[in-house]
Amino acid sequence: MASRTHDPEPLLTPAEVASMFRVDPKTVTRWAKAGKLSAIRTLGGHRRYRESEVRALLQGQIPTQRQGD
Amino acid sequence: MASRTHDPEPLLTPAEVASMFRVDPKTVTRWAKAGKLSAIRTLGGHRRYRESEVRALLQGQIPTQRQGD
DNA sequence: ACCCAGTGGGGTAATTTGGGTA
DNA sequence: GATGTCCAAATTACCCCACTGG
Fold first, then answer.
1. Helix-turn-helix domain: from which residue to which, for each copy (chains A, B) (predicted)?
2. The domain containing residue B49 runs over which residues?
């Protein structure tokens, strides 16, 4: 088994996610605000995104979960 | 900066594909709906197209799904 | 402490979607 | 059957400036 420390979950910056979807980084921010994409906040308020989730979203395997409706 | 070996697939917007084919963006949308062109969806529902596929289509290297011929 | 590319927040154009129609 | 146009609504892109990340 691995040690008791957490596995280093690969995180992506807004710009990286934006380039993967061919959208503006601001758009990725809107997705996070809308709850379509879970974001991890830095202590300074910047957002980081889980690479695994982003890739799953790109493959369309996640039923585009929306919050407000 | 996140110096991750990141190979984002180049994607094209509907307008870009439309100008490449000299057609209306709406027509490109119809091609995607008809399955003639694979499309990746943004979380907001907009379509993005693979540049490699579009270029191959432009060169006629992909046997378009046509019935008899 | 300085540098500076990237990001957040807000607001406003531009593009895209989807249906119906020519 | 395939493409272009009109319309309303939704989504996205670009503009500002202040702050964060390395």
1. 11-61
2. 9-57
